[in-house]
Structures are given as structure tokens and as C-alpha cells.
Amino acid sequence: MDKEPMQHIILDQKGRPCLQGSRFKVIELVSIMLGQGWNAEQTREQYPHLSLGQIYTALAYYYDHKMEMDAEMERLAKETEFLRTESADPTFRDRLLARGKSR
Questions:
Q1: Residue 97: what pLDDT?
Q2: Same domain for 57 and 70?
Q3: Do 60 and 70 fall into the same domain?
Q4: Closest listed residue to residue 1, CA positions, set 59, 62, 65, 55
Q5: Which domain holds residue 35?
Q6: CB-CB contact of 26 with 62 (8 Å)
Q7: Positions in the chain short of pLDDT 50
Q8: Would you state the pLDDT for residue 102?
Q9: In a shared domain, residues 78 and 31
């Protein structure tokens, strides 16, 4: 499978696929679409600054790299849940500040 970027897709400094001409990472747009159950046209209604070409290209990129992107989505979801749980701890802020001072 070809790993080269597609039209409308650029890679950021960290090699993450992003939609050219927008601030969206492909993984963010696809996560929103899957989470909301939106098709391309519904996504276009919510984000009129994106073209249907950009949206369909993001979906094509996702499906061409589905295993890697699903793994990254799962990792991000776990990280988010961890941070949500940690931030509920009243000592979380103090531990973060202490960690920043030690670096």
C-alpha cells in the first residue's frame, strides 16, 4: 500500500497527515465524523470551510491507513481518559507544577 500523501493531504513536522489549507489533522476530522455518525455532506455542513474533496480525501486516507489510525485513536482515547481521571485528583495541579520545576 502506498504511504505517500494524497491530494489535499500534507504531513506536518511530526509526519502526521493534515488537511491542506486547514488546521485539521486527518485523525481529528475522521474521529469527529465517526463519533457523530456524520457522512461527508453532513460534515461539510458543520465545517463549510472544508471542501467535499478534502473530506473525502481524509476518509480515503483513513481507510488506506485504518489499522495505524485506529491504534492511534485508541491511544489518544486512553490518554484522554487518564488525564480526565488524573485531573479529578485535587493534587494533580501540584504534581504537574512540581514536575515542571524539576525539568
A1: 76
A2: no
A3: no
A4: 65
A5: 1-64
A6: yes
A7: 1
A8: 61
A9: no
